[in-house]
TrEMBL record:
<keyword id="KW-0433">Leucine-rich repeat</keyword>
<dbReference type="InterPro" id="IPR053211">
    <property type="entry name" value="DNA_repair-toleration"/>
</dbReference>
<dbReference type="GO" id="GO:0016020">
    <property type="term" value="C:membrane"/>
</dbReference>
<keyword id="KW-0325">Glycoprotein</keyword>
<dbReference type="Pfam" id="PF00560">
    <property type="entry name" value="LRR_1"/>
</dbReference>
<comment type="similarity">
    <text>Belongs to the polygalacturonase-inhibiting protein family.</text>
</comment>
<keyword id="KW-0472">Membrane</keyword>
<feature type="domain" description="Leucine-rich repeat-containing N-terminal plant-type">
    <location>
        <begin position="27"/>
        <end position="66"/>
    </location>
</feature>
<dbReference type="InterPro" id="IPR013210">
    <property type="entry name" value="LRR_N_plant-typ"/>
</dbReference>
<keyword id="KW-0134">Cell wall</keyword>
<dbReference type="InterPro" id="IPR001611">
    <property type="entry name" value="Leu-rich_rpt"/>
</dbReference>
<protein>
    <recommendedName>
        <fullName>Leucine-rich repeat-containing N-terminal plant-type domain-containing protein</fullName>
    </recommendedName>
</protein>
<keyword id="KW-0732">Signal</keyword>
<dbReference type="InterPro" id="IPR032675">
    <property type="entry name" value="LRR_dom_sf"/>
</dbReference>
<keyword id="KW-0964">Secreted</keyword>
<dbReference type="Pfam" id="PF08263">
    <property type="entry name" value="LRRNT_2"/>
</dbReference>
<feature type="signal peptide">
    <location>
        <begin position="1"/>
        <end position="24"/>
    </location>
</feature>
Length: 368
């Protein structure tokens, strides 16, 4: 080999090694991922078998990197998936272990999804709030315990926080209302207790707030009505008390309001029956008094459930003026009088009116 050829070879080799080094993920990110893996046990699918070699940005299952920086940006591990690895095994995933604090060393992490593995336990690492680029936390469907990190509000870019179907305890942190970019909040089916933050309405970008099946107490904050984009509010199966703020019926895009199975009382605001709400479930509370006779053309309900309360008096005749009522349930109250004729009453079954004081007429028995 001539001197020129040898020099050219060395230069090419140097460029190749440099390029390979640049294109690989940093050793620190690789080490963090391997420590994360070491805290988990997945016996059936072998999803971690691909986590080999020096470049964690290349063909590591569930890992994605930023194209420019080559830093780990996304961890996406779902226990229920249509991925071929699941189809080949013919089963959903099952994983035990815990979420290692080592993930906090992934300084450019944007999305963390470790969902539906059924057996992952332990707390959410508190250090997770130090990741400035984190936008998505999705840990649904595990056995995660402990509390939501107190300073969760530091994650200014957060758009999705989903920890539903776990064993999370404690109060909702006050700092959570600092998440000004949060669009989807799902805390369903945990063991969260205590009141909702009074300034819940600071979450101005929120479109879905799902907090059912917890032990949340206190009253419904009036500030919720300031969340202009909120379309779905589910606070069912908690221990909420007091009255429903009338301002909820004035929200522009609120379409679903589930407050069933609480300890709410008083009268239902008239505004709820002439609003954008199309799915209204207020069953299994302690509401009382006459049902407001305020229904009209703006009343459009796919579901209207007022069962298991203490309403008395007649069924409002104005219900027949509603644009549409699909399913309606007025059972288990103290209503009395003749059931109005015509729609929507002509397509409802007797179970919608059962167990009242003295209702009569179709579809129940004839009035005396």
């Amino acid at each position: 080999m001539t001197t020129f050829s040898y020099i050219t070879f060395l230069a090419t080799l140097t460029i190749f090694i440099s390029t390979s080094t640049v294109r690989s993920c940093p050793a620190s990110d690789r080490a963090a991922l391997l420590a994360f893996k070491a805290a988990l046990h997945e016996p059936y699918l072998g999803i971690f078998n691909s986590w080999t070699g020096t470049d964690c940005c290349h063909n590591w299952y569930g890992v994605m990197c930023d194209m420019e920086t080559r830093r780990v940006a996304d961890i996406n591990l779902r226990g229920e998936s249509e991925d071929p690895i699941f189809q080949k095994a013919g089963r959903s995933g099952y994983m035990t272990g815990s979420i290692s604090p080592s993930i906090c060393k992934l300084e450019r992490l944007s999305s963390l999804t470790i969902s539906d593995w059924k057996g992952i336990s332990g707390p959410i690492p508190a250090c997770i709030t130090s990741l400035p680029f984190l936008r998505i936390i999705d840990l649904i469907g595990n056995r995660i315990s402990g509390e939501i990190p107190a300073d969760i509000g530091r994650l200014e870019r957060m758009t999705v926080l989903n920890i539903a179907d776990n064993l999370v305890t404690g109060r909702i942190p006050r700092s959570l209302t600092n998440l000004s970019s949060l669009m989807h909040l799902d805390l369903r089916n945990n063991r969260i207790w205590g009141p909702l933050p009074l300034d819940f309405g600071r979450l101005r970008m929120l479109s879905r707030a799902l907090l059912s099946r917890n032990y949340i107490s206190g009253t419904i904050p009036d500030s919720i009505s300031k969340i202009y984009r909120l379309a779905d509010l589910d606070l069912s199966l908690n221990k909420l008390s007091g009255e429903i703020p009338a301002s909820l019926g004035k929200m522009a895009v609120l379409a679903t309001l589930n407050l069933d199975s609480n300890k709410l009382s008083g009268k239902i605001p008239d505004s709820l029956f002439n609003s954008a709400i199309g799915n209204l479930n207020l069953s299994k509370n302690s509401f009382q008094g006459y049902l407001p006779d305020v229904f009209g053309p703006r009343s459009y309900f796919t579901v209207l459930d007022l069962s298991y309360n203490n309403f008395w008096g007649p069924i409002p005749k104005s219900l027949s003026q509603a644009s549409f009522i699909g399913h309606m349930d007025l059972s288990h109250n103290r209503l009395c009088g003749r059931i109005p004729a015509g729609p929507p009453f002509d397509h409802l079954e007797a179970s919608s009116f059962a167990y009242n004081a003295c209702l009569c007429g179709k579809p129940l028995g004839a009035c005396q």
